[in-house]
Amino acid sequence: MENNGHVKVNPMPRIGEKAPDFETITTTGKLKFSEFNKGSWVVFFSHPADFTPVCTTELSAFANEKDFFASRNTKLIGLSIDSIHSHLAWVNNVRDNTGVYMDFPIIADLDMSVGQLYGMIHPNEATTAAVRAVFFIDPKGIIRMIQYYPLNVGRNMEEIKRSLIALQTADEKKVALPVNWKQGDKAIVPPPKTLEEMDERIAGVYDEKVDFYLVKTTV
Question: How far apart are CA 204 and CA 192, in angstroms?
Fold first, then answer.
């Protein structure tokens, strides 16, 4: 805390930057983020508080998609400003009442150190709760996408899944993805960067060509 009683907030990490490293306590034990991230994608998300209705629906949705994320070489890790005891009790309560087991690590960020490191604390929204942030981090530890939601609006799991598939498809196929893209749709071939490439594009045959700068291909 600062002397004036306000929470000190670090600048939010940006897309393309290395994900800040940290060591912490989670529901699955001690964790060093860079080791956890090594060799796999990570979806790192925060929630405002345990034992709250919106958060319960969200983290249950992440747990229900466990096989999807595993198939995409992606690990899940959550965070809130609650104690490890609160996390464990909540996980057990949800399992008892719904049968959903949130067995991915959830960070106990009582001192807000990790939340501040990732810009998850927004004082105009709340000084004692993290907003609903989602960080997509690639196997090299680079932040590739960031999504933010306020305390009173839950995330869209289909959009989180679509975003992950899109990032991985763009990397694998070396393409860009148009508005409302979903798996199975055509992708955009990156635009030419030289006159020679432009002439090759104009003469080329593609799945869909609006003009030399807007060409789509099947991926």
Answer: 12
What is the C-alpha to C-alpha distance for residues 129 and 51, in angstroms, rounded to an integer? 13
Catalytic residue numbers read 55
CATH architecture of 23-156: 3-Layer(aba) Sandwich (3.40)
Is the domain spanning 174-219 CATH 3.30.1020.10? The answer is yes
pLDDT tens, the chain, 219 aa long:
444 455 555 578 999 999 999 999 999 999 999 999 999 999 999 999 999 999 999 999 999 999 999 999 999 999 999 999 999 999 999 999 999 999 999 999 999 999 999 999 999 898 889 999 999 999 999 999 999 999 999 999 999 999 999 999 999 999 999 999 999 999 999 989 999 999 988 898 889 999 888 999 999
Separation CA 21–CA 83 (nearest Å):
21
